[in-house]
Automatic annotation (TrEMBL):
Protein name: Probable membrane transporter protein
Keyword Hydrolase: no
Superkingdom of the organism of origin: Bacteria
Membrane-spanning intervals of the chain: 12-39, 83-104, 110-131, 175-208, 214-233, 240-260, 272-289
UniProt keyword terms in alphabetical order: Cell membrane, Membrane, Transmembrane, Transmembrane helix
Subcellular location: Cell membrane; Membrane
GO CC annotation: plasma membrane
Protein species of origin: Candidatus Phaeomarinibacter ectocarpi
InterPro entries listed in its UniProt record: TM_pro_TauE-like, TSUP/Inactive_protease-like
Membrane topology, as annotated: Multi-pass membrane protein
Length: 307
């Protein structure tokens, strides 16, 4: 069934969008990521303009994250205090990111920048996560401890000021690293149309040393509010939010997130990280190929651009 998207100005199959929303929602609930790192490229692959894909996906991320948070909250797997610190940095980052997005769009460079940013970030994060996950799985099979931190040891984070006790995560660390992580993720959420979970989840596990079972719900809670702010700013400043597209993605995404949470709790932490790393690398390779492959249409005529 074809449906017209007024902001994207193209017609697409509604069932394809519902399926994409459900699949990405499932991954969101299972891995604790907003799903934008997959959905935004997938929307671009289906012909949605990158700027519209970024702005609209932020709306879909809010709903799927909210659905996932509720499921994890019922399991008492959300550190709300840590999420609040991450959110403080993320709110500032979202504002900065939307302003950068507007500047790049006015210069006509936003589409290329989005694609290049995805290739770089997904490639680096995916490779690092895969290496660590493989080592953890091998250590687990050999009967060794998969933890990289020995009891009683402290990293450089413990030497920083402004320490806060996060009881749910069993941590007593400085608030500075979570604030900086939130700031970085907020900028990425606004520019790339992602929740930032593909960076936040590894950072919370490997840098902050949070337990994996708490990371997922906490990540989704922060993502929900940061992307909500980014979506509002994109709609008001850039007019790149297609409400019809967003509604179709929302319906599938909310349902998929509930199923993903249930599946995620049945898998080990290192298995979840390995699966997430594989998907990150796969999307990175596809985007990289699209950047270097010869397009079917060598020229594009822009109508109504005002130029």
């Amino acid at each position: 069934m074809q449906i017209y998207l007024p902001i994207a100005e193209i017609s697409v199959n509604a069932f394809v969008l519902l399926g994409l929303g459900g699949a990405v929602g499932f991954l969101s609930g299972m891995f604790g990521v907003g799903g934008g790192f997959l959905m935004t490229p997938l929307l671009i692959f289906t012909g949605i303009p990158p700027a519209v894909a970024v702005g609209t996906e932020a709306v879909q991320i809010v709903a799927t994250s909210m659905s996932g948070v509720l499921a994890h909250w019922r399991r008492k797997a959300v550190d709300f205090k840590m999420a609040g610190v991450l959110l403080a940095g993320g709110a500032v980052g979202s504002i900065i990111g939307v302003l950068i997005f507007s500047a790049l769009r006015s210069e006509g460079q936003i589409d290329l920048f989005i694609s290049l940013a995805y290739v770089v970030f997904l490639g680096v994060i995916g490779a690092l996560m895969m290496v660590e996950s493989v080592r953890a799985i091998q250590a687990s099979r050999s009967g060794k401890s998969v933890s990289s931190r020995k009891p009683g040891t402290h990293g450089w984070i413990h030497g920083l000021p402004f320490k806060v006790r996060f009881r749910r995560s069993r941590l007593y660390i400085s608030a500075i690293p979570p604030l900086l992580i939130g700031l970085s993720v907020g900028i990425l959420a606004a520019i790339m149309g992602v929740g930032g979970g593909f960076i936040m989840v590894p950072a919370m596990i490997y840098l902050l040393r949070m337990p994996t079972n708490v990371v997922v719900g906490t990540s989704l809670f922060q993502i929900m509010f940061v992307t909500g702010l980014a979506a509002i700013m994109h709609a008001t400043l850039n007019q790149t939010v297609d409400i019809v597209l967003a509604m179709l993605l929302l319906v599938g995404g909310v349902l998929g997130a509930q199923v993903g949470v249930r599946v995620g709790h049945k898998l080990r932490g290192e298995q979840l990280r390995a699966l997430l790393a594989l998907m990150v690398i796969a999307v990175c390779l596809r985007l990289a190929w699209d950047l270097v492959a010869t397009p079917d249409d060598l020229f594009t005529v822009m109508i109504g651009s005002g130029l």
